[in-house]
Write a structure and sequence with these properties.
It is built from 13 helices and nine strands. With 307 residues, the protein is of the alpha/beta class. Strands 3-2-1-4-5-6 form a six-stranded parallel sheet, sandwiched between helices. Helices cover 52% and strands 12% of the residues. The longest helix is centred in the middle third of the chain and has 29 residues. Helix 7 links the parallel strand 8 and strand 9.
Length: 307
């Protein structure tokens, strides 16, 4: 009887709400996954899913043909690559670094160039879909990179995503598409929270409001996804307010550099900043509705996650 082939090795850096689901999806697909996260509770989730926990990015990436980085921003991406115990030094020629952080294209390109100079492929691959879809292996990936980078990463991409958009042959293009998505996502969340606050001010049944709007032309994916958090008074962070203070801040920086006015994104950013300043930065981004309620003395559903 022939010996079974060893499972393919994948390293995952960042095991938060998105990374842990992506790592678990890779384990289910038969990959041998080693992951790193500085937060012990996040790392423990990977162990529970059948992966191996590493003590550093370098240890997680050692021997892996594919490394998936699901950290927050450009600074963290640079740290897991080139910081103390970073993984760049252990990545072999022909391996691929799949960068899923949300960052400006201008931040992606120099990181990619530094890795490619070492013979390591770089795939710019920000993701969309939220923690639930990450756990199901049903994300949307907005990717760009060389054909060789796509070829090297494709087995892992198939395990993590339901939809893979191949958007160009250079790192940075995928991140540009992601920033357009984040502009819309932030505006839509803010608009959904404002609409719920408006309904509360009118004395409407908010559960009924949700039912009506989700079947009407005013619906959006964010309204449908986030308003249940408000109805259940559950503000545990699937995606935190602070994510959108970061991402919309990047949008505004990019727009200013292009002399492009983005007034709706600017207004949404101010709402997220005010919500964070009110002490809810680490709470679910639907907490913008709580900000409106606080300002206007409105009554929202109460529960363990409400004030």
């Amino acid at each position: 009887m022939a010996a079974s082939r060893p499972a393919r090795r994948v390293g995952v850096l960042g095991l938060g709400s998105m990374g842990s689901g992506m790592a678990a999806s890779l384990v289910r697909a038969g990959f041998a996954v080693t992951g790193f996260d500085p937060v012990a509770a996040c790392a423990a989730r990977l162990a529970g899913a059948g992966g191996v926990v590493a003590a550093s990015p370098a240890e997680a990436a050692a021997g892996a043909a594919i490394v998936v980085s699901v950290v927050v921003n450009a600074a963290q991406t640079e740290a897991v690559l080139f910081g103390p115990e970073g993984c760049a030094a252990v990545l072999g020629a022909g391996s691929v670094f799949v960068s899923c952080a949300t960052m400006a294209p201008e931040a992606v390109r120099p990181l990619a160039a530094r890795l490619e100079a070492r013979g390591v492929h770089f795939l710019d691959a920000p993701v969309s879909g939220g923690a639930a879809r990450a756990a199901e292996g049903r994300l949307t990936i907005l990717a760009s990179g060389s054909p060789a980078a796509f070829a090297a990463a494709r087995p892992a991409l198939g395990a993590m995503a339901a939809t893979l958009h191949e958007l160009g042959d250079a790192p940075g293009i995928g991140s540009g598409f992601k920033m357009v998505n984040q502009l819309l996502a932030g505006v839509h969340i803010a608009a959904a929270c404002e609409a719920v606050a408006f309904g509360a001010a009118l004395g409407l049944d908010l559960a009924r409001l949700y039912q009506v709007i989700t079947g009407s032309a005013g619906n959006s994916w964010m309204f449908e996804n986030r308003v249940p958090h408000i109805l259940q008074a559950d503000y545990a962070p699937r995606s935190a307010v602070d994510i959108f203070t970061k991402d919309l801040g990047i949008v505004l920086d990019m727009a200013r550099a292009s002399t492009l006015p983005v007034p709706m994104a600017s207004s949404a950013l101010q709402l997220f900043l005010m919500t964070a300043a009110a002490g809810m930065g680490r709470d679910d981004d639907a907490s913008v509705a709580r900000l409106y309620a606080r300002i206007a003395r409105l009554k929202l559903p109460e529960g363990s996650g409400a004030e």
